[in-house]
Amino acid sequence: MKVSEISNGSEVKIHAAINGHSIVLMTEAIFGVAAGLLVKPMEYFGKYMQFLEPSSVEIRNKRDGRVYKFMSTTITPVKTRYGNFHLIKSSSKLEPENSRKAERFYIDKLGLISINGNNMDLKNCIVHDISMRGISILVDDSTILKIGDNIDVMFRYGDTLHNYEISTKVVRNFEIGGKRAVGCSISNLNVDLIGLLVSKKSEGHPVLDNVPETNLNPEISEKQQIKEVDEDIAKELIPERPNTLTISSGGTNPFDPKNLEHITDKTLRQAKQEERLAKQAKDIENLLDLRDI
């Protein structure tokens, strides 16, 4: 499967680094175009992200529920008549993983966590979603969590405000809507949790992956929208906001002159200016020598 064949509304995760710190960026597929996959724009403090190197991408395709992992060729910000987006390109063919992931259900409830058994220092969190295998929680900037930390999560849910307690382990850090989040694997699949998930499924709550598709222009078909976006991308339009934040898989800019042996810190213009000034200084020195004679 080509990256352009990913379904509208599919969840997209991009593994990258900013200033040497690994992060997972979350976005959503809109539709495939001739050049690649158009996704919702990714910003960091108001700046569009510019990916300098190939990045590891993970997409859960809505059409078949399968997870596809691949390396992008480029991920670039683009401007269209419908606004600013990012375009993911990949020259490789996408192959699905063998296993399907468990269905996740939206929770969005305030909870408490204890870290590594420290019940004397409870932290606030928001339980974002949950499945048979894991749970995602939002935390504030003062809560420091590392991969491998053991987290006990407590929250109330349902008409009776039943108290749920779940033991988990942090497996990844990422962002949801610009907020810090952690994904945790569940180590004790207790009866309470099974009952919650069964009730969510039987009550007809939508699976988290079944998010509405993005419709850029309801007045025309998606096929026509794709044609218009293809035309805009062909014009090589840039985002409305010129400021971009460059990130790379290693957290450094590979195009920084000091990282390239064959490029000096001086630009061609600077070199010519210095050469001209040196020539003028030499001419003045010669004139002074003639005056002394």
Q: Determine the fraction of residues in helical runs and give it as a percent range.
A: 10-25%
Neighbour order of strands in the largest sheet = 7-6-1-2-3-9-8
The coarse overall form would be globular
Mean pLDDT: 80
Describe the largest sheet.
7 strands, antiparallel
Task: Name the beta content range.
Answer: 35-45%
Q: End-to-end span in angstroms? A: 83 Å
Order of helices and strands: EEEEEEEEEEEEEEEHHEH
**SSE-based structural type:** alpha+beta
Please report the total strand number as a whole number.
16
Poorly predicted sequence stretches spanning 5 or more consecutive residues: 250-266
Radius of gyration: 26 Å
Tally of DSSP helical segments: 3
Q: What's this entry about, in short?
A:
The protein has helices at 191-202, 222-234, 268-292; strands at residues 11-18, 21-33, 36-39, 43-44, 47-51, 56-60, 67-71, 74-80, 83-89, 105-115, 118-130, 134-138, 150-157, 162-176, 179-186, 244-247. The chain has 293 residues and is α+β, with helices and mostly antiparallel strands. The strands form three sheets. It has a seven-stranded antiparallel beta sheet with strand order 7-6-1-2-3-9-8. It has a six-stranded antiparallel barrel with strand order 10-11-12-15-14-13.
